[in-house]
Amino acid sequence: xxxxxxxxxxxxxxxxxxxxxxxxxxTRFHALNYTEFSKIIYADxxxxxMTNIDELFDISDDFAASPCSRPGVVDPCFxxxxxxxxxxxxxxxxxxxxxxxxxxxxxxxxxxxxxxxxYYALAGNWKALSFSFNIRLIIYRxxxxxxxxxxxxxxxxxxxxxxxxxxxxxASDFNRPILVxxxxxxxxxxxxxxxxxxxxxxDWWRSSKLFRQDQEFVGVPPAYADCIExxxxxxxxxxxx
Length: 241
Fold this sequence. Notes:
Layout: E1 40-43, E2 47-49, E3 63-67, E4 78-85, H1 89-105, H2 112-121, E5 127-128, E6 145-147, H3 168-173, H4 181-198, H5 202-207, H6 213-218, H7 223-237
Parallel strand pairs: 3-5
Antiparallel strand pairs: 1-4, 2-6, 3-4
Helix pairs in contact: 1-2
């Protein structure tokens, strides 16, 4: 992180440390230096594609991203979890300079998404992708993607860290229409289980800390649905702090 990002606490928003939100997420900016490529598509690790995206490489604009909110909701923001951009070292250095300028003017530090908005959107150099490339929190059609993003107070945990997990049989048997967010979690596991087999990654998966023998192989329908319901009951019955 640049030296001018202070670690001292401030009297700004909830007295949070300067730069606390951008720590780590700013690394995506370095992709702008990969000028050996004519176009780059960046996706967060919690982003799941549901369709082919080759057509996005044909976008002529320098930068493209999906709005943060679904159509009909006014929200001057785009989501930085899925980006299409033309790499250029000039853009990288200008972003870094803007970052430095904003850091010295504001008592709280802009995160990567705010910084990108200032640089691209406010300058009118932004092509809006369909919200279907940034679906989160709800189910939306066309279902081109799903982003398991959001804070813990209004979004379920990531599929791999959640307490509930469908067994391999439950995931394999899933073939009904996707109607709720919990369905997307099952689709995630169905895809992962199939890829582990296709690319012979079973040994690696079993050696990782994310593997759960009891849930993946012991659970039988409706084990996952029952687990989800139990967690919801716990959440509802938990007293407000």
